[in-house]
Amino acid sequence: MIFHRFSFKAMACDNELQFYAADSDAARRAANRAIAEVRRIETKYSRYREDSLVSQINREAGQSHVTVDEETAALLRFADTCYRDSGGRFDITSGVLRRIWDFRSGAVPGEQAVADILPQIGWAKVEWDGKQIRLPQQGMEIDFGGIGKEYAADRAALILRAEGISAGLVNLGGDICILGPHPDGSPWAVHIVRPRRPDTIMTTLPLGRGALTTSGDYQRYFESGGKRYCHILDPRTGWPVAYWRSATVIAAQCSAAGSAATIAMLLGGEAVAFLESRKLGYLLVDQQGKVTTNIAPQQRNPSRDKSIAR
Question: In which element (H, E) is residue 206 found?
Fold first, then answer.
């Protein structure tokens, strides 16, 4: 078996496929199919594309119902589960908060601006019967940003498996889905960087299969008045979370790991109980740098160069 690596851009990030295949033609064919699937999902659900299904649903806010296909219905059901599991903190209608939170300008919105936009948030307000969806208020939106990339990683992994790939991984901007261990049975070494110090490896986790994602306050943020404001916003208050520096979660699927990592950031001090109740692996770093984890790290092996930083 030959090791292959394919890099590509999609979903506004750098992505990579790493896997073993018998020959280059088979590897290229499998990679092309997986990459095409990621880009299909991006085209269908990106809020940045006027022709996407998400944009169609958002344009109809305050007006008509939109009939959705089974794939979209499954994503909406998953979003509903995340909403309920998080006590309303994981809410796919909260994307409207980006109208007042501009992380490029670094301007803190006023209390009134936050109060004015909160009525446009609320998954519980959405009219959804399993087949049709309607946003009842003009200006409301849905956004699959919290689960879309992770879903794409799961789909890409499924495509690779269908092409006969059993040893490899999908890495979509750090959301990692592992198909299986190296051909010799050894796990992949996933390097977890120290929050706010991306040049420093905090620990290395061995993964032979499953998925891992990290959510943190150091990827999109700004500082103002000596305070850090990150892009993870509590839809109930409209303000950024400030309990954990990062939350890394291991689960069977990337969509489950990604949503749980975001929910952990949103839950703050309740995160450990939430993750333990779902029997998920986790590594949490609080604002003082203290680590809380139920994952055993491994000794780093400098001779193995096929590792992934997250």
Answer: strand 197-207
Q: What is the pLDDT of residues 15-32, one digit of tens each?
A: 999 999 999 999 999 999
Task: Give the separation between CA 144 and CA 72, rounded to whole angstroms.
Answer: 10
- Yes or no: say if 210 and 252 are a contact pair by the CB < 8 Å rule: yes
Q: Are strands 66-67 and 132-134 parallel, antiparallel or unpaired?
A: antiparallel
Residue 7 CB neighbour total at 10 angstroms: 12
Q: Which tokens belong to 109?
A: 């919105």
What is residue 19's predicted lDDT score, i.e. its pLDDT?
A: 98
> CA-CA distance, 171 to 65, in Å (whole number)?
35
Contact 177, 153 (CB under 8 A): yes
Contact 67, 132 (CB under 8 A): yes
Cβ atoms of 310 and 13 closer than 8 Å: no
pLDDT band at 298 (very low <50, low <70, confident <90, very high): low
CA distance 165 to 187: 16
Which residue matches tokens 């092409």? 163
